[in-house]
Amino acid sequence: MANYRNLLVAIDPNQDDQPALRRAVYIVQRNGGRIKAFLPIYDLSYDMTTLLSPEERNAMRKGVISQRKVWIKQQAHYYLEAGIDIEIKVIWHNKPYEAIIQEVVADKHDLLLKMAHQNDRFDAMIFTPLDWHLLRKCPCPVWMVKDKEWPNDGAIVVAVNLSNEESYHEKLNIKLIKETKNISHRIVKSPHIHLVSAYPVAPINIAIELPDFNPNIYNQALRGQHLIAMKKLRQKFTIDEKDTHVVEGPVEKIIPEICDELHAGIVVLGILGRTGISAAFLGNTAEQIIDKLKCDLLAIKPDGFVCPINPANGPIK
């Protein structure tokens, strides 16, 4: 179980306000620990120019890094003056997600925080390619922060998968709830933990192809299976029945809707971290949910997750 005391904040280089740093300070003030404000930067023009010697290019890179450190210190000066332990680190690296994950691994950070930009029209979060790389590949939990005040009496929602198709779902569900209780006790101080699961309706084409197939009986049996699994899960963690939700419908629709109804401050979900062909063709259910969320997100990998980024290939500093 993570302590959430060694935090890495991925600084957004394109804006002055840093909600992820603000959330990290919120966590440290309640839980203790330290923060590293981290920014990988790169400008191809500094490396491509033939008018400068290698020494001059290196000096220019160091100048840019120094300027960015000063800029981050300005963003953090209220926190620093208040005595919050914040280390500022800027490096030269042409692949931000690799640099961030390498830093997580090298310094054994137990939580990565990053801002997710907001779609003002729909009040939902917009996830960039950098966000998706971090969600899929970062070995520690990733807290995606929305630029929004924490809701008063906001709930914590745990998206659980009660399908019995894959054995790893049960282990991941247990890990998610343990981590959520840990967060609730140490950081968020919220007594409202809700477990949410969705199950699909019977596909119409099955009823057409199999005349004897009764979709109502199938749906009732599937709901019963999910209710039994949910009861077992809530009893294991002494969660009240009224705080559990088993709903028929697409999971990518149901989870965000329940989060809205409960005025959730954060939703906790497991992400398998598929990459390459499997991600392209199979997709990740978690990622379909993420696209529609309007609150903070904490994405947690299953035990045994292997980070695809080689930490040995360090960045240029």
UniProtKB/TrEMBL annotation:
Which CDD domains does the record match to this protein? USP-E_repeat1, USP-E_repeat2
Name the UniProt key words of this record, in alphabetical order.
Answer: Cytoplasm
The keyword Cytoplasm appears for this protein: yes
List GO terms (cellular component aspect).
cytoplasm
Checking InterPro entries in the record gives: UspA
Primary location class: cytoplasm
Question: According to its UniProt record, what is one Pfam family this protein matches?
Answer: Usp
Provide the protein's localization.
Cytoplasm
Tell me where in this chain the UspA domain is found. 4-146, 229-301
What is the documented function of this protein?
Required for resistance to DNA-damaging agents.
Family note:
Belongs to the universal stress protein A family.
**Entry-linked NCBIfam families:** PRK11175.1
Full protein name:
Universal stress protein E
